[in-house]
């Protein structure tokens, strides 16, 4: 009898394991990739620490790694004249994007990443560029570098673009309509407002950072090309669904990636008076990163009008368990520093909801405290908030709505608007500078 | 292992000496208590939100409230079965618990979204195999007890080795347990560099212990593993306070299994001696 029972137990366990490991094998993807397509695609600009004089340009080739990859650029448009660009740089990193069995099963084509750096740029300047892989040029795009003067600037910020759409189980195989709608809105916003300098992503791009997810994220991101082929530089962060190696492969941040590998925390000087600190909740929050954060806050706070942080896992979640380890570790490690150095705004993602907290200090409402906005709405299915939480009582709030935030850094005020896919303003918040 | 079972020994518990019976009762009691603690821990984890709700809502498009209801219902099943199996031997209920613990591990692994979730099924080996051990412990023959010993060692060993490998690979949560616990308990500022070295030493020791346990039957080794299992499970509390208690309870097998093994081993040894005599 024990023999039978052991066999039964094992069979039951194997059955259970197999059952939950099964996945839907539907194949109704309606976006066909041309097999012969080897021209550069997914062309994007990434900003890191000094966007007034530096940028990273990345792209993908499909099916073939190729031999020669370079960026040609200029401060004037050269349109179809590929040989007249004044500057060129060779790509610094090229390689095959890791493919797992599931990536092959999902039918995404083999991809190759290419990253180059352009340096010594002039501030507030339009840079026109093309990328070239083995003689195949991309379209001409342009982006604008960050200013070196104290002008009014804006950025877009939002997080969580994984899953969604009509059949959400494997977005990509079916189009991720929610994400595409938000990308259309981001494009519309950048076309309406040239003051918007960059698009800051609060992470969780896809369900994983494996190619079957990032491929479709990059395909959808191609919607965000503005008038006259303007690209909005990306400021990226890493979330809890971005662990896979594909993240490093596709989002290379030069020395930041080379030195920290999984790190992805850095300070972006958006203008002489605006500092954005990108943090990474997926590595140690109490170790080197905390020491680094305190140093950045201490250096920047005394002489920057606006000091903003953004990171993925929220310190003040409005959906998930407030006491969960994932959030409490962020609250314990970083919030005391935010309060000590009086940052102006904290941007959080992960919860799949729209929120703005009351100003918080020492774990309670305080007019001098920190406001946390969030919590992820770039097309991800929206959850429902626990409206009883003290930190979203009026004038704080939470609402289930896809959103992207337009953050405007004026000389006299910081203005935050949460904007829905239709362009409707879902929330408005303003504050005056803490320092003169 | 099937040959052991079919060897034909069907001894009844009545044939055991009083002392080995006591050891067996203690082993059973500890294992029941371990499973009860695990179930209470998982109950609170599920109530506060888990991979289950995430997958039902995000991937299967279930209404969030409905997903939460299912999650709460399963939480209640854990709690009820944990309580019932503490008092009585219901084989079907115990097998349901084995299935549920395995199910939860697979779900967490499938959903990903935390460091090292790829290893979840292995990391949860102890908590999955603890109730399987209890399931077999209900059988009262000598050779089944040997199999139980092996199953529990298997669960404990795999969990220790997996956690050891995560520590050697510098699991970010483990780093923060160390850094913040040092600060909270001893007022010592441990920098990340030193925390990483300590973690690698701890991880290497865990791997060694996890391997040793398959070959060495030693009370002191098991006692150390019980102590260490409790310390590491409690690191969530020393890092972030008493509110983290469900995290400790759900890891009860990390200290409960070594304690069970101590008494089970004593029982088996005494029985073997008697058989030789
Ligand atoms: Fe997330």
TrEMBL record, chain A:
Keywords: Signal. GO terms for molecular function: acid phosphatase activity; metal ion binding. Residues 40-145 form the Purple acid phosphatase N-terminal domain. It comes from the Bacteria. It holds the Pfam family Pur_ac_phosph_N. Residues 194-347 form the Calcineurin-like phosphoesterase domain. PANTHER family: ACID PHOSPHATASE RELATED, PURPLE ACID PHOSPHATASE. This is Calcineurin-like phosphoesterase domain-containing protein. It comes from Rhodonellum psychrophilum GCM71 = DSM 17998. The lineage of its organism: Bacteria, Pseudomonadati, Bacteroidota, Cytophagia, Cytophagales.
